[in-house]
Amino acid sequence: MPGLEISSEYGNIVGLNPYNSVDCVIYGFDKTGLKVLLIERSFGNLDVEFDDDLALPGDLCGFDELLDNAAIRILYELTGLKDIFLEQVHTFSNPSRVSKPKDKIWLNAIREVPEVRVITTAYMALINLEAYKATPSGFAKKADWHLIEEIPTLAFDHNEIVDHCIKVLRNKIYREPIGFNLMPKKFSLSMLQNLYERILGKKIDKRNFRRKMIGSGFLIQLEEWQSNVAHKPAQLYSFDENKFESSKIPFNAIN
Amino acid sequence: MPGLEISSEYGNIVGLNPYNSVDCVIYGFDKTGLKVLLIERSFGNLDVEFDDDLALPGDLCGFDELLDNAAIRILYELTGLKDIFLEQVHTFSNPSRVSKPKDKIWLNAIREVPEVRVITTAYMALINLEAYKATPSGFAKKADWHLIEEIPTLAFDHNEIVDHCIKVLRNKIYREPIGFNLMPKKFSLSMLQNLYERILGKKIDKRNFRRKMIGSGFLIQLEEWQSNVAHKPAQLYSFDENKFESSKIPFNAIN
DNA sequence: ATACATAGTGTATTTTTTACACTAAGAAAA
DNA sequence: TTTTCTTAGTGTAAAAAATACACTATGTAT
Q: Residues with Cβ < 8 Å from A27, sequence gap 6 or more?
């Protein structure tokens, strides 16, 4: 395999490491809820098709490729998404990651060394659905968003990976203002509150939420309002990136 | 490499994966401070010796070995430590992880495929120094504790790994009562406070700290006191494991 | 007997969190 | 054009948590 050169916008990869992969858990948010980006795999030259064959975008990394870069490259190759901040979450190495017949067929169709145990490192990102468009390419036939409450059985151990990442997301949102990555440039406080409620899976008091968010200092109140909504239009806010960075420290510390 | 069988108390490993390793960052605490366990490497049959050649305990994982198990096995093989809760922290994949001449010599002496980029997954544990004794074995000539403030240049990217783990430790101690893993079975509140101050690198108010810790509910006040100390003996406490588990949730949440 | 070192204790003030219900503004329907 | 519907937006009082702060207690060593 070393010798095989793969070109992409993200550099040339000389040879794929058959033992290491990355998988990307991309969260997006719109009015219907919190979603994850899933691809449908093509089974190469095989004349096989499966219904509901969904997986996280992911693939082998290069022999000398930084995993962080592999995640960026592979996400781009499979979904066209780029300029996204991907954060490493966890590395999964269960030898029985490949147990479903579908997965074995797929690996045989697409991998040069299909039978080895692959260690995969999961990356996570939060993006604003309005600002990005996912278009399938590579071995991805489709690339679509799925509500986190309605994720079907996925390839390999991808359900486990998604579950783990959701836990990490829930934990993070208590401590860091990460929600803003999922918002459009301009948003109302109700949209933001809705996001928090979706991620945490519980109701939040409106007045307390607003006081806390405005008090946090990383919101900029715009002189703009919603229009053409069948109710009182909400004032729009945007997000102060400078204050964001400095607020990534824990909010509530001993002394 | 597949075919080579490695036996250990922690199972038989059939063949080592030359692309993946684990490294263990083991924290211990005693009255002199917060320490990390480091080994000194033996250079196999080579007649080479280096001064101050220190590294984290770590090695290649098996082809079909769960990384979690590899960490447990390798820590045991190199230091004799066992029954320690190791937690995965991060995976490091920098292609220039191996840049120092010493490291290249060592890899050539000990590895079958010394030249490939190795992806390493770091594990972290907190232990009570009094309860464990580290004894070097395998390619470890020595296994000693080093104050985190005095860690010299280590092998590979191990300084980066230690730095990252310390950040994770600092963050965790704000949110979880992890400090107890580092304490002996019976401890005084001053010892615990000293630990917190060492990890966080700052002074904490004594009365507030005590109120908070006792109020947390996971301390058991013993009817025992220190003896033979040249000052008023401190009352001893132990740690309520049951309450510990349930308190692993964030302390300070929205609603 | 005294010096020394660390243990152990309480309170007032400020800040943060929580619980809670009505009015405002626009679009849509009648 | 009035009414209805839907979501936006607002304040306060009470409780809980965080903070700042200084002296007495009890043992060993001299």
A: A34, A35, A36, A124, A125, A126, A127, A148, A169, A182
d(CA A199, CA A201): 6
Are B124 and B87 in contact, with CB atoms under 8 Å apart? yes
Place of tokens 């960052």: B25
CA–CA gap between residue A181 and residue B193 (Å, rounded): 37
The segments of chain B whose pLDDT lies below 70 read 1-12, 244-255
Quick one: closest CA in A to B68, which residue? A93
Q: Residue B120's CB: how many other CB atoms inside 10 A?
A: 26
Q: Given a cut of 80, is residue A195 above it in pLDDT?
A: yes
- What pLDDT score was predicted for residue B82? 94
Find the residue in A nearest to B213 (Cα).
Answer: A254
pLDDT of residue A251: 32
Residue written as token pair 């490291």: B103
Q: Is residue B209 a contact partner of residue B224, using CB atoms and an 8 Å limit?
A: no
How confident is the model at residue B254, as a pLDDT? 35
Contact (Cβ atoms closer than 8 angstroms) between residue B74 and residue B174: no
Contact, B231 CB vs strand C, < 7 Å: yes
Chain A neighbors of B251, CB-CB under 8 A: 252
Measured CA to CA, the distance from residue B229 to residue B226 in angstroms comes to 7
pLDDT in tens, A210-231: 999 998 888 999 999 999 999 9
Report the predicted TM-score, pTM, of the whole model to 2 decimal places: 0.92
DSSP tag of B154: B
Do residues A132 and A82 make contact, with C-beta atoms less than 8 angstroms apart? no
Q: What does the pLDDT average to over A32-42?
A: 95
Q: Give me the residues paired with residue A146 across strands.
A: A36
Q: A225-229 long-range CB contacts below 8 Å, 24 or more apart? A: A226/A188
Distance CA A96, CA B198 (A): 41
Secondary structure of A195-209 in HEC code, one letter for each residue: HHHHHHCCCCCHHHH
